Amino acid sequence: MRLDLQAKSFAGKEILGPIEISVGRGERVAILGPSGIGKSTLLRILAGLDRNFQGRRDGDERLAMVFQEPVLLPWRDALANITIPTGCDRKTAIEWMGRAGLAGHEAKFPRQMSLGQQRRLALARAFAAGPDILLADEPYASLDAETATRMVSLTGELLDRSGAGLILVTHDPNEGAALEARALRLSGTPARLQKD
Ligand SMILES: Nc1ncnc2c1ncn2[C@@H]1O[C@H](COP(=O)(O)OP(=O)(O)OP(=O)(O)O)[C@@H](O)[C@H]1O
User: Sorted alphabetically, which PANTHER family does this protein's record hold (predicted)?
Assistant: First the structure.
C-alpha cells in the first residue's frame, strides 16, 4: 500500500502536511507522536476509511484493523465473533483462537471473558481475516504493563506466522521496537514525518 498525502484538514485547519508512506506484506511500521498530532487520522486514511484528503492512496492489499477496545458482538459466542465478521470457516477460527491462547473458550460470550481474553479474541479475529497488513490503533493502551508486554509478543508471533505487515499507531516507542517496526515519527504543525 502506498500513500502520497498532500494535506488533510478538519474544518479548514490543516492537521497533516505532505506525507509519503509505503507498507507491504511482511513490513512493519510504527507511527509515533504525541497525543493529538494526527496518528489516528493518518491510520484511518491508510486504512481507506477516510477518503476526504488531498493526495492519493494506492494498493489492493487485504486489511484488518484492531482498536483500543476489542469491539465484540456481545450476544454471540467467541467463535461466532470470528466467523461472522470475517466470513472464515469454524476450523480457521478455532486455529487462530488456539494461537491466541484461547483454546477451550470458543463457546464463551464476551462478557464471560476477561478484558485480556477479549483483546486476544479481537487479535485472533483480525488474523483470521487473512490480512496482508494489520492496522492497529493503540491496541495495548490501558493494559497493565505485564499484559501489554504479553500482547505485544503475541502480536509478533502471529505476524511471524501469517507473514502480514503491520501499521501500528502508538505513543510508546518501546512497543514498536519490540515488534521490530520501522519508526515513523509525526511532528510539527501540520504534522509531517520527522526525518531521523
Ligand atoms: N472528526 C474530526 N473532526 C474534527 N477534528 C478532528 C476529527 N478527528 C480528529 N480531529 C482533530 O485532529 C487532530 C488529530 O487527531 P488524532 O485523533 O488523529 O490524533 P492522535 O495523534 O491519534 O491523538 P491520540 O494519541 O490522543 O489518540 C486533533 O487535533 C483532533 O482534535
Answer: ALIPHATIC SULFONATES IMPORT ATP-BINDING PROTEIN SSUB 2, TAURINE IMPORT ATP-BINDING PROTEIN-RELATED
**pLDDT of 29:** 97
pLDDT reported for residue 142: 77
User: Is the shortest distance between the CB of 38 and ligand 1 below 6 Å?
Assistant: yes
The predicted structure's pLDDT at residue 196 = 57
Nearby residues of 153 by Cβ (< 8 Å), 6 or more positions away: 178
Q: Which three cell numbers stand for residue 3?
A: 500513500
Domains of the chain in sequence order: 1-62+131-196 (3.40.50.300), 73-129 (no CATH)
Closest to 184 measured CA to CA, from 28, 20, 31: 31
Is the Cα torsion angle 56, 62, 66, 72 positive or negative in sign?
positive
For the stretch 114-125, pLDDT in tens is 988 999 999 999
CA angle in degrees (0–180, nearest 5) for 6-7-11: 160
- The CB of 44 under 6 Å from ligand 1? The reply is no
Which pLDDT does position 144 carry in this prediction?
A: 84
Residue type at position 88: C
CA distance 59 to 112: 39
- Cα(52)–Cα(56) distance, integer angstroms: 10
**Cβ of 36 below 6 Å from ligand 1:** yes
